[in-house]
Design a protein that fits this description.
The chain is α+β, with helices and mostly antiparallel strands and about 350 residues long. It is about 25% helix and about 35% strand. The strands form two sheets. Strands 1, 2, 3, 4, 5 and 6 form a six-stranded antiparallel sheet that branches. Helix 1 packs across helix 2 (about 130-160). The N and C termini lie far apart (about 55 Å). Belongs to the AHA1 family. It comes from Lymnaea stagnalis.
Length: about 350
């Protein structure tokens, strides 16, 4: 039994930034599954590879099944990820005008295998000689490219989820675990909670404006059963926006004009509008740090009655990533499908 004043250091709350998980003794886990699925899709979808015989492209990512997490135990980082990825490809021989299609499966992306050992199983939908030639191109050239992209995923996972999980202790550098963009450049070496406090603090304090916070990037791909022009109108025509956002919005889709939705809970400014193709906005939620804006880019691609929407949103406060993703999905995409009958698939 410890003497008075000599408690087990695992349980002593030291003079440290967060006063939790002292000495990094306890198991801490960060769920990286949703981020991983979005990242893998971003890295693989649209990937092209070719040789002197022909060219192939990954056209669809049909499913990504599995999970990923980052863990800290006794100041040691442990990453777990295990996924099965299924998709579709299309290709064409250089002396041919007909394209051929097929499927691919990555059965085991996990920490048990090095990226160079990842298997890619490829099949062709047709049984003709041309289709098999293109399948061979995919197998020979595509496997290497896919392995390289998934190696990048593994690196990004460790960078994105490795920061701030091992927390600084009393005698350590309080900037430990922060990404370069999050480091504190002052003589006082302010604690980590000072850096992040504005996520939950009173947003009326003007003195808080301009403080650096950890941010993340969100990517989403949605499919709608409509023309690109219809989807663009649903995103920019005020009466249609009011149909799923509610009345009383401030909304004039002109470059430089500001907008306000949900009673001022979402505000921003239009940066660029290309009819039926692209919308760029400065975008924020009321609860975010004062004057902190993310950048939202929405790109539309229409083919044969179906439109694919690709969203990229950078500068989201780190703790708000999952909430922001769910907000787009529930308050925008699902409501638009229901109200306007756009239907479509969610990737």
């Amino acid at each position: 039994m410890a003497k008075w004043g000599e408690g087990d250091p695992r349980w002593i709350v030291e003079d440290r930034p967060d006063a939790t998980n002292v000495n990094n003794w306890h198991w801490v886990e960060k769920n990286a599954t949703n981020w991983s699925k979005e990242k893998i899709k971003e890295l693989l979808l649209g990937l092209k590879f070719e040789n002197e015989k022909g060219i192939c492209e990954i056209k669809e990512i049909n499913s990504i099944e599995g999970e990923a997490s980052a863990n800290n135990r006794k100041a040691k980082l442990i990453f777990f990820y295990e996924f099965e990825i299924k998709g579709e490809w299309s290709g064409m021989l250089k002396d041919d005008i007909k394209s051929y299609k097929g499927k691919f499966v990555i059965p085991n992306l996990s920490e048990e295998n090095d990226a160079s050992e990842i298997d890619v199983n490829v099949t062709a939908d047709q049984s003709c000689n041309e289709a098999h030639q293109i399948k061979d191109i995919f197998k020979a050239e595509g496997t290497k490219r896919i392995q390289a992209q998934l190696a990048k995923y593994i690196t990004d996972l460790k960078t994105e989820y490795g920061s701030n999980i091992i927390l600084p202790t009393k005698n350590s550098d309080q900037n430990q675990g922060l990404q370069p963009s999050q480091s504190i450049n002052n003589k006082e070496n302010k604690p980590k909670q000072e850096l992040n406090k504005f996520i939950t603090s009173d947003t009326s304090k003007s003195a808080d404006i301009g403080v650096k916070i950890p941010t993340k990037t969100l990517t989403m791909t949605e499919s709608f059963n409509c023309q690109a022009s219809d989807l663009y109108r649903a995103l920019t025509f005020k009466p249609m926006v009011e149909a799923y956002m509610g009345s009383g919005i401030v909304f004039e889709p002109v470059k430089g004009e500001k907008f306000s939705l949900y009673g001022g809970n979402i505000t921003g400014e239009f940066v660029e509008l290309i009819p039926d193709q692209k919308i760029t906005q400065r975008w924020r939620v009321k609860s975010w740090p004062p004057e902190h804006y993310s950048e939202v880019t929405i790109e539309l691609t229409g083919t044969e009655g179906t439109t694919t929407l690709n969203l990229k949103q950078s500068g989201i406060p780190g703790a708000e990533l999952d909430k922001t993703r769910e907000g787009w999905r529930e308050n925008y995409w699902n409501r638009m499908r229901q109200i306007f009958g756009f239907g479509g698939r969610i990737f």
